[in-house]
Amino acid sequence: MNIGSVSLRDVPESDIERALALACLVFHESPDDERREQQQRTLSGCLRIGAYDGEELVGFAAAHPFTVSVPGGGDLSCPGLSYVSVAPTHRRRGVLSAMMAELFARCAGQGAPLAALWASEASIYGRFGFGPGTYGATVEIDSRRALALRISPDERPLHLLDTDSVPAVLAPYFETTRGPRAGRHARTQAWWREQWLTRKDEEDEDLSPPRVVTLGDPLAGYAIYRTKSGDWARDVPGLVSVEELEADTPEGAAALWRYLADIDLTGTVRAHGRPLDDPLLLFAADRDQVGVKSVEPALWVRLVDVRAALAARAWAAPVDVVLAVRDARLPANAGTFRLIASPDGFSYAPTDDAPDLSLEARDLATVYMAATPVAALVRAGLVAEHTQGAASMLDAALRTELVPHTGDTF
Ligand SMILES: CC(=O)SCCNC(=O)CCNC(=O)[C@H](O)C(C)(C)COP(=O)(O)OP(=O)(O)OC[C@H]1O[C@@H](n2cnc3c(N)ncnc32)[C@H](O)[C@@H]1OP(=O)(O)O
């Protein structure tokens, strides 16, 4: 790829400040000192690719050293791409494309079968083979009246947890939620502190520091939330902004939602990025009171090594299909392959047989976590089904008990 006078190299620690300055420029941000220091610490632990024009840093991309849960409870190395920035003076000449090629090469070098990101604009990353692997819903509760429930909430005591104790108390609990739900990152203690417990909310500085409420001892659930007082003169109620809520049982979840809805001087509970199968949406007695405001793609996934990625996930039912895969950016994935998989075995090998399904790598990424069925992509005209029933057979094999979900943004 010809990017003129620009060349790629690793960004040394001493250039992290310059990389952050570039990111601030392109994302129109001016973080305070506390946030800037936190970003420096985070970037210090990342793979950092820079595009230099002479000595000028004109492009930057970082990769967090994440692992992510995949269907069946396995954990795969999955670099999390972030801070992708190209200087306005150097756009649309292939700098991002070159950095992406370099990142894929590094993933392959590290034996990482997946890569993932959160997209600033959904139109950018499909061409690089990323597909929306998980989704999140924004759910809002009108809490000016008591939350109406069809089940009885768990009556065990609730406790407010000191934020210093959060990583130690919540980390083992959160870890148990990752196996059943694909798409969840392993969290280090530092990640808990830097991403979940920051004093200020990045999007809304009027929100309080995070509060953490736990249910039961031993722990049976928790919620992380922030609050904001209302503007009663303008009839704007106080807000409870829920960042995460996990519970062992529906009754436990009901207790936590009821607690959040009962907080005095607030009238709205808003939860971002909820799993699409959140039981609240079923056990709420009044769906006029509990609404889904939007559903958005969350984690965009790339199968860097299709065979290794498919081999690492579980298969819920037997499948035997021939896939014709197109992958312009990573040609090693392209070709015609017979996928034979079941709960007991897996093989994926080149074949000369006629394909049952033809699809692009980005579409394979879209169905990998099972948030979107193959049959839906066939109906959308994106996947070609040459053998009737092939998409349904593949969907039955890809199926997961719980809808995949990603809570961590990066
Ligand atoms: C994971 C994350 O960090 S998401 C954050 C992404 N960063 C931003 O949004 C910050 C502001 N934007 C930028 O810094 C840059 O414009 C970038 C990084 C989005 C693009 O960088 P560039 O070097 O201009 O991209 P490059 O020239 O390699 O273009 C690659 C392809 O993407 C397309 N593309 C680039 N930007 C966009 C865009 N904003 N919307 C749609 N398509 C785009 C190009 O047309 C090109 O398409 P082609 O391969 O079909 O010809």
Automatic annotation (TrEMBL):
Keyword annotations: Acyltransferase, Transferase
Active site: 125, 410
Enzyme Commission number(s): 2.3.1.-
N-acetyltransferase domain ranges (all copies): 6-154
Leader peptide range in chain numbering: none
Family of the protein in this entry: Belongs to the acetyltransferase Eis family.
Protein name according to UniProt: GNAT family N-acetyltransferase
UniProt source species: Streptomyces endophyticus
Top-level taxonomy: Bacteria, Bacillati, Actinomycetota, Actinomycetes, Kitasatosporales
